[in-house]
Amino acid sequence: MTSHIARRRMMQAAASLVALTSAPAFAKTAAKGGKDKGGKGKPKSDALGDLDGVGVAARIRAKEITPLEAVEAAIARAEAVNPKINAIVTPMYDRARGQAKALTAPAGPFAGLPTFIKDLADVEGVPTKNGSRAFANNVAKSTSPYVAAVLRSGAIAIGKSTTPEFGFTATTEPLLGGATRNPWSLDHSSGGSSGGAAALVAAGVVPVAHASDGGGSIRIPAACCGLFGFKPSRFRMIGDRDASEPVSISVNNCVSHSVRDSATWFAAGENTGADAAYPAVGLVAAPTKRKLRIGVAIEGLIPGQKADPEVRAAAEKAAKLCRSLGHEVFEYAPKLDGQAFANAFSLYWASGAAQITAAVARMAPNVPIDQLLEPLTLKLTEMFKAAPAGSAEKAIETLKATDAAYAAMFAADIDVLLSPVLSRPPLKIGEIAPTRNFDEMWTLVNGYVAYTPLENAAGAPAMSVPLGWSASGLPIGVQFAAAKGEDALLYGLAYQLEEAAPWARKHPPVWAG
Predict the structure, then answer these.
(1) Residue 193 among the catalytic residues
(2) Is position 324 annotated as part of the catalytic site?
(3) Which residue in the list 153, 161, 194, 217 is annotated as catalytic?
(4) pLDDT tens readout for residues 165-197
(5) Which residues contact 176 (CB under 8 A, 6 or more apart)?
(6) Catalytic residue flag (residue 217)
(7) Where are the domains positioned within the chain?
């Protein structure tokens, strides 16, 4: 689940709707997508190898391989596995080849590294479809400031990765293009809303890819796909500020195999300008030496919510690991009204759907709205409209109060909060599809993702670490969260966990490397 879509962003994209004349033709264009044809190169078989992104860039800077060889290798991998996982909404292969050929002196931490940009972010001249039939013809007129910062690090985008419609749910099964599948089990979801990014990285197409998180959308797909996923603090990254949002919940970063890839990506996208919300973190490159107070909260915030036994076991094992590393680890019950928070977050989420539905209806008044927007988006809109007068304002007050209560917990009791990422191992395709009965699906979604939205409302950093596995071989992520601004603390802990329980060499059945 990714973001409360700001009115400003909607107006930028909505111009694409004006030219619509008939929904059926439009939907057909959307479903097919664009196939990027062009001369295939012959990549060196070891151009990417089993290296992380920092390692590939080091090979390029050392002239052991060229940027073009790296790009061709990633394209070959994508073509090999994408028919199985369906994680690419728009290929950018020819464009990437041209950029790679032009890199005569590759520089930057990700010099020449192929990657993907999530299809909620703009790249000039490339469609930003938002996972929606309503925006299938929307071509970005400029590159978003955040994406531009990532590309300045030397990375080369070879495509746009799939997302659910507007990032509204925890699985990537949009009507535009169909379901993205988990490389660990093709019957299972890769999570959402950065499900395409996670599937591509998990399958070994690229080592690291752009992701964003407004309710868990970095952490959820990372947990589903056995990856490391870090959500930064609010306003930490370039372009995160938006004055039109009463509570800003969405942030950008990436999903990756290695902690150092994520930390390097974070440093590339961090706002270090005069308007920065925090002192710069820069590149965190080593394990923490600090002994931390780690509170363990395995049951969810919502009364009566229970974690699946395999999820509980993974969290308990992670707590034991932290204790073995010298940290003070103890059970902890967050001092929050979990039900009030969940209700407020759901209504705030629904307000974003209502804004989108209204904008689409205005821009395409002659097209039936259900041919442009999915049932989930329309049902969320109905939920928002049906709320009693004053409910939206009360929800915003609750979210702001949650921010303060969260900060107080960390000031008084703990340095890190350990919990599951999801209440269950990855769900099967279809269990929370946007076309399912809304009441059943939304109840399941809220129970499934109940651990992740808290840090979005609190503006706090959090990470999913791939420390657990189900008996059937599916990944189970463990969440670690900290106070606002304590991003470096979590990265230091992540390096420590990675050293103690390495995960990067474990590959899924669908593997392109």
Answers:
(1) yes
(2) no
(3) 217
(4) 999 999 999 999 999 999 999 999 999 999 999
(5) 30, 31, 89, 129, 131, 132, 133, 136, 165
(6) yes
(7) 7-500
